[in-house]
Amino acid sequence: MSENKTKPDLNIEIAGIKWKNPVTVASGTFGSGMEYEDFVDLNKLGAITTKGVATYPWEGNDTIRVTETASGMLNAIGLQNPGLDTFTKRDIPFLNRFDTVKIVNVVGKSIEEYVSAVEILSEQPVDMLEINISCPNVKEGGIAFGQDPRAAAEVTEAVKKVSSKPVIMKLSPNVTSISEMAKAVEAAGADAVSLINTLTGMKIDINRKAFTLANKTGGLSGPAIKPVAVRMVYETAQVVNIPIIGMGGIACAEDAIEFLLAGASAVSVGTANFRNPGVTLEIIEGIEDYMQQQGVHSINEIVGAVL
Amino acid sequence: MKYNKNTKIISNTQLTEDIYDLRLECPGIASEAKPGQFVNIYLNDSAYMLPRPISICEADDGVIRLVYRVVGSGTGQLSRMKQGEALDITGPVGNGYDTDLINKTYSNVALFGGGVGIPPMVELSKRLNVKTDVFLGYRDVLFLDKDFPASASVYISTEDGSTGTKGNVMDALEESGVIPDCICACGPGPMIRAIRNYAKEKGIKAFFSLEERMACGVGACLACVCKTKETDEHSQVKNARVCVDGPVFDAEILA
Fold it and tell me: Taking chain A, what is the end-to-end CA distance rounded to the nearest angstrom?
């Protein structure tokens, strides 16, 4: 009896950083948390992962930037961001009002730009850096480093050299073998990997006889991609020793638990924030309920349980 | 912004072939709502990942009224919802029209609504206490044309000429002889462009509520941006967010 009533232990540790639970948000779906403050007690999240930021402001793509698809959506925002000057003065002080792990997602158009951003952020009060080498919506940078294991390793090595924070490399599913990419960044010194970013897709507007998105292609996210993401987390978990942050279509606790069982140490909730702005906290509660029902004491007991 | 789960449907009635009139019981949003603001509707079917942003047509006595067009399967599903059923919504979203400023500064306001740009003009007209002329543009079948206060003069245009002026809202404006000192408009892109040119040419103040494809509907995802002349404070580039920085913009700041 008493066993069932014990509060399960959701604490995890990734690259030496302690999280109070394994749930964060996927970069780009949550800003820096400001816009979700009305709906979510940000202190309750395991971590907040910010929208990607570069050393200087980026305009992003033309509109239309998003369109809904069956159980998902396509986006081609193009990494619009205010640049680190504004980000360090506005977003980081905001994040530091909350008792949660702060992960800053970093974008760049060259190795030098990633390195400059990481140098700046190394001096800032944030906990971890996630390096985005997998955005399918910008031509230079982003995906250019995310589809070739050697290029990915080169970025990893360069940012690791200057980073005072643990480095998470965010991987693209738009590759022949994501586990090869993961191995390459692990060998280059990555402290963790996060996967998957969006799958490149396209939608045609049959009335206009034109591409729906101004960028023609966009990144597919949402429940539609979840089985692909779970498979990729599973494949990666078999070949790397560094922690995996799993994501791709997580919309409820059951989805999150699948990723944990497949080998992810933590999970990110992305597109689901759009259909339910309070979903992250529901997922954390749902994981707790599952652990209680299953008699699981520590979340670490279920990580990779199917491997 | 409020997140109202299980917002009760008071009524959801068909006005024309594809226009529906939804009334929701939500005192929290109704008491705060300003004309020009909108709500995000989260459809109950979890396969729809994005909320439907729908402008507030009226907000009174704890009730918000939303008049929307069925454009796809999501709004189709919404149109089949019945009295007593419930929806999750967030709102009110966006800035809305600054009616205090308009009432204080201008003496002859012209409101332009085209298609589903008409609904926000109803609440706006109710909150203006200066001379108000309302220009409504339709394809053919009218809706909401009888819902404006008696103090406002309503001019109708239809593309097929079945009611009012044959043509668009600009044709109706010309025919009316009205010369406003302030314009508020919501409607399709070509209508907004025509009004913008007219306002610019005549030196008339204009406020537009813009439409853009949205995702999060709360200001986080940066999907629904519009180009501005100057760098805006939030983005640090010349992109304002239509959802929360707008949807109402002073024409002068738009690129």
Answer: 30
Q: How far apart are CA A239 and CA A179, in angstroms?
A: 7
Domain boundary among B209, B232, B250: B209
Residue B231 lies in a domain: no
Report, as ranges of residue numbers, the positions in chain B whose pLDDT lies below 50.
none
Contacts of B239 in chain A (CB under 8 A): 59-60, 80
Residues 268-297 of A with CB under 8 A from B: 271-278
d(CA A249, CA A272): 7
- Closest-CA residue of B relative to A76 is B223
User: Which CATH number fits the domain A2-62+80-200+221-301, given the four candidates 1.20.5.440, 3.20.20.70, 3.40.50.720, 3.30.1130.10?
Assistant: 3.20.20.70
Total number of domains constituting chain B = 2
Question: Tokens 């996210």 appear where?
Answer: A221
Query: In this complex, which of B1, B214, B222 lies closest to A77 when CB atoms are compared?
Result: B222
pTM of the model: 0.96
Q: Is the pLDDT of residue A2 over 60?
A: no
Please report the ipTM that was assigned to this predicted complex.
Answer: 0.95
In a domain? residue B176 = yes
Q: Which parts of B163-236 fold into alpha helices (H)?
A: 169-176, 189-202
Say which of B74, B88, B237 has its CB closest to residue A59: B237
Q: What is the pLDDT of residues A167-196, one digit of tens each?
A: 999 999 999 999 999 999 999 999 999 999
